[in-house]
Amino acid sequence: MIAPFHPEEITGMDTCLRKQLIVTCSKSYVMIWNYKEGKFLLAYKITSSNEQGCTSVAFHPSGFHFIACVGDKLLVMKVLSKSIAEQHSLTLKNCKEVRFSNGGQFFAVGVSCYTYVYDFYTLTCPSNQQCKGHTGRIQEIEWFQDDSGFSDAC
Q: Checking DSSP bridges between strand 150-153 and strand 54-59, what pairing results, if any?
């Protein structure tokens, strides 16, 4: 990528193949880049009282939204032509990993030793979509190709 670079260590990254975009996050910033042209596009300053800041980001397959794990919140962000706007905020303590399904209708969130699956359009998480019982902190989530399920790694 061409400068400007992140002013801090990058803590998360995701790609959107349909729009040739990359979203990266650090403690205080979320930045969007066009990887085909090698250009920086947009930045969003994270305002969080949590010292950890932003730990993970996930692009919606459409490229019009992304989700950022920020301290004790999950921010659903809208990508506009010249800016980034917060659309919704969900309270989740210790969310460290987030990943959209391939179709974009669901997203999975790793919260400590649990994985919660949310409907993107209603932002609801039914009790039968909560995976509990892992022995360690969720570090990675990967959806199956047909979105019938996912695997998570501790």
A: unpaired
Q: Rounded to two decimals, what is the model's pTM?
A: 0.84
Contact assessment for residue 134 and residue 152, using Cβ atoms and an 8 Å cutoff: yes
On the CB side of 109, CA atoms within 13 Å amount to 26
Residue extents of the structural domains in the chain = 10-153
Q: DSSP E strands: which ranges in 6-139?
A: 10-16, 21-26, 29-34, 39-45, 54-59, 65-70, 73-79, 84-91, 95-100, 106-111, 114-119, 130-131
Q: How confident is the model at residue 139, as a pLDDT?
A: 74
Q: 10-153 adopts what CATH topology?
A: Methylamine Dehydrogenase; Chain H (2.130.10)
Chunk the chain into consecutive blocks of 10 residues (it has 154) and report each block's average pLDDT, rounded to whole numbers: 69 90 91 90 81 88 94 92 92 88 91 86 86 73 82 66
What pLDDT score was predicted for residue 129? 79
Q: Distance between CA atoms of 45 and 56, rounded to whole angstroms?
A: 15
Amino acid identity, position 103:
G
Query: How far apart, in whole angstroms, are the C-alpha atoms of residue 96 and residue 84?
Result: 21
Q: Which is nearest to 22 in space by CA: 38, 9, 4, 8?
A: 38
